[in-house]
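From the methods appendix. Each design record in this collection lists the tokenized structure first, followed by the designed amino acid sequence. Records were kept in a plain field format so they could be parsed without special tools. The example shown here is representative of the layout used throughout.

RECORD:
FOLD TOKENS (264 positions):
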């Protein structure tokens, strides 16, 4: 993909700009273990499909009670060169993800716009969703954050009776709509170590027959799993191990990454 290098250069330039202009006082450091925390950040992940790069920037929402953040992620570049398990097919970018997140500090309620664009063997495919997240009262070492939302799937037109037979056509369309329901959870193990488990159930609502019957992991719905074990090195830096799998893919065959994050 010819635009991959250009996109990567822009993201790296953004990260350098953030590091030069967004250094905060220690008193401004946010709790990086909180799924609803909003802060300017940068992250680098080493995955079985290559490298991931993440840049997040806070912004003024115009309200003293809310905080906002934009996050851009570039996923799976240099996969052929440094990925493991032979899953990095090439060195180009596998996917892009953009999130706009804001949280109301008075009631612990967040809202998220999540846009994903993947460059797959059946063409460029994407999703865009809007979700609400609510922090529940802490229960000892456990925090729960239920989530619910709706979204649309789009991309190059699919023609086929199933995901395995679908072929991308030379045009784009809206494949259909879907829902998502789940939660983020955090279990505090020590002051600096915590465990996250984030199950999400998603299913199709409307659209083409191909999407409605096969749009969710070759089915009409799927249960997604994400687990992460994290260690806070210092107030601004942590290292995290992530695993993602589904009800149709076992843990060993899922996606794995090690990620280092820094808060500016």
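DESIGN:
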């Amino acid at each position: 993909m010819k635009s991959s290098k250009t996109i990567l250069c822009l993201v790296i330039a953004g990260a350098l700009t953030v590091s030069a202009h967004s250094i905060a006082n220690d008193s401004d450091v946010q709790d990086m273990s909180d799924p609803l925390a909003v802060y300017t950040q940068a992250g680098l992940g080493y995955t079985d499909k290559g490298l991931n790069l993440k840049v997040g920037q806070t912004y003024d929402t115009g309200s003293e009670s809310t905080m906002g953040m934009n996050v851009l992620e570039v996923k799976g570049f240099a996969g052929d060169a440094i990925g493991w398990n032979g899953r990095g097919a090439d060195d180009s970018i596998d996917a892009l993800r953009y999130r706009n997140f804001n949280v109301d500090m008075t009631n612990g309620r967040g809202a998220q716009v999540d846009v994903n664009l993947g460059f797959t063997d059946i063409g460029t495919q994407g999703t865009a969703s809007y979700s609400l997240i609510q922090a529940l009262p802490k229960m000892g070492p456990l925090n729960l954050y239920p989530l619910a939302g709706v979204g649309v799937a789009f991309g190059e037109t699919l023609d086929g009776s199933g995901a395995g037979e679908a072929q991308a056509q030379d045009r784009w369309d809206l494949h259909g709509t879907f829902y998502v329901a789940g939660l983020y959870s955090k279990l505090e193990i020590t002051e600096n170590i915590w465990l996250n488990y984030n199950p999400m159930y998603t299913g199709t609502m409307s659209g083409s027959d191909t999407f409605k019957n096969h749009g969710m992991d070759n089915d009409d719905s799927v249960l997604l799993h994400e687990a992460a074990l994290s260690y806070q090195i210092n107030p601004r830096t942590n290292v995290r191990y992530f695993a993602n799998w589904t009800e149709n893919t076992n843990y060993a065959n899922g996606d794995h990454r090690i990620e280092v994050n820094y808060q500016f």
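APPENDIX NOTE: The chain has one domain: 4-188+204-220.
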